[in-house]
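Hey, I'm writing a tutorial for new members on how sequence and structure tokens pair up, and I'd like a real worked example in the thread rather than a made-up one. If someone can provide the structure for the chain below, I'll link this post from the tutorial.
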Amino acid sequence: MAKSALLKSSIVKKYWMALTGLFLCLFLAGHLAGNLQLIFGTNLQFNQYALFMTTNPAVKLLSYLTYISIIFHAIDGIMLTVQNKKARPIGYAKTDGSSSSFASRNMAVLGTVILVFIATHMVNFWAKMHFDKNMPLMVKEIEVQGNKQKFYVGTETGQYYPVDQVAKEGEKADPTTMMPKQFVIKNKTELYYSQADVKTADLYKDLHKLTVDFFKDAKYGLYFTIGYVLAMLALAFHLWHGFQSAFQSIGVNSSKFTPVIKFVGKAFAILVPLLFAIIPIFLHFKK
């Protein structure tokens, strides 16, 4: 078979669709484990997780693979949908739909909803985490001699720096004042001694605060929460059909394995989106 014919083959597309889909299922499980720290962990633990996910070389490589998989999965899905429609330009006679599920009939629509959600999700969190100059830094309130004082938190254990002694990024510490600030922030998270220009620490970006503030926003927080839950509902339907279909596409389809795959797939399609959906609900209504 010629290379061009191979690339156009619906069988090859289905293989790639299945493999990228299963890889993204693994990503969902890992991403969920990290995000659950918003409920069961502390703000420090979640920010440590966020730092690890954005700086570890192996994780960054997996992240790029995830981005490519999302794009490939979406494009492949669109191509398969178009190819299937061209293969039968005259639709089948309408039935009561009992031979196929809602999910299987609407995979393209569900996938489109999920793709829109991913794009908005990355704009609101990933992009701000990486590029927003106003991304908040983690601050911890500590009682000092009977008074509560705010400190920036360094990435090394025990590193705390008084907020009132740190000049903001772009704000030059004035050495001629009676009480010049001891530190200055550079490159968003790097802390330097203001007079010696020597780096002393890296500070945590506060993704925890960004996430909580997003879902607790007084004006739009409830709408964001409802939108997130609806997107997880679309994901649940997409997984309900897609998980089992992926294994079938790669040839894992037998009387021995199919019942197990169906059970695991349905459990995954319910539990993963449900737990994802609980997170914004918990954050929005938490006092």
